[in-house]
Amino acid sequence: MALQNLISHHAEFNLWANSLIVEWLKTINQDLITQSIPSSFPNIDSTLQHIGRTQKFWLAFISQQDLSRFVWSIDNSSLDAVYNEVIELSVSMNQVFSNFSGDELEEYLELNMPWAQNKRPRYEYILHVVNHSTFHRGQIVAMARILGVESGIPATDYNIFNCR
User: Fold this and answer.
1) What would the pLDDT profile of 42-53 be if each residue is shown by its tens digit?
2) Which of 21, 65, 96, 127 is the most buried (most CB within 10 A)?
C-alpha cells in the first residue's frame, strides 16, 4: 500500500507541476518560447515538446504498449497543441500510474532500446519519468530567466506540492 501511495502521489505531483509550468508559459511573451538559447534543446518549446515525447514514451512502455513505431521527433505544432499534449499526457500518467496494484508496480519490465537496456521494477521507471520532467522544468525556468523573464515564475518543487 505504501508503494501505491508513493507512486500515486508522484504522478499527481507531476501533473500539478506540469500544469503550473504550462499555465505560466501561457502568460509570458510567446515569442520567447521559440527564441533560440543555448541549452540542451534550442528553445523552451523544444524542451517542453521533449517532456511531452518522453512522457508519451514512458507511459506507453510502462503500460506495455507496442513501441515499434514510436516517433521521438519534435514537430512544428502550435504552442497550444504542445501545451495541451503535455497536460493530457500528465493526466493520463496520473490516472494509469495511480491504478497499478502493488504487485504490478513491483513487476520487472525489460527495456531494450538502442540507448538503454535494463530490467527494473515498473515503479522505478515511473519515478524516472517524473524525475525527468522535473529536470526539464528546471531547464525551462532557467531558459526563461536568461531570456529576461523575472516575474510569475512558479515554484514546482515537490516539497511545495506537499505544502498545498
Assistant:
1) 999 999 999 999
2) 21
Cβ atoms of residues 86 and 51 within 8 Å: yes
Q: Dump pLDDT digits (tens) for 51-91.
A: 999 999 999 999 999 988 888 877 777 999 999 999 999 99
- Is the dihedral angle over the CA atoms 159, 56, 97, 19 positive or is it negative? positive
Check residue 64 and give left, alpha or beta (phi > 0: left; psi -120 to 50: alpha): left
**∠ Cα 77 147 21 (to 5°):** 55
- pLDDT at residue 9 above 90? yes
- Please give the Cα distance from 40 to 132 (Å, whole number): 13
Q: What is the 3-state secondary structure of the chain?
A: CHHHHHHHHHHHHHHHHHHHHHHHHCCCCHHHHCCCCCCCCCCHHHHHHHHHHHHHHHHHHHCCCCCCCCCCCCCCCCHHHHHHHHHHHHHHHHHHHHCCCHHHHHCEEEEEECCEEEEEEHHHHHHHHHHHHHHHHHHHHHHHHHCCCCCCCCCCCHHHHHCC
Q: Nearest Cα to 25, choosing from 87, 90, 95, 76? A: 87
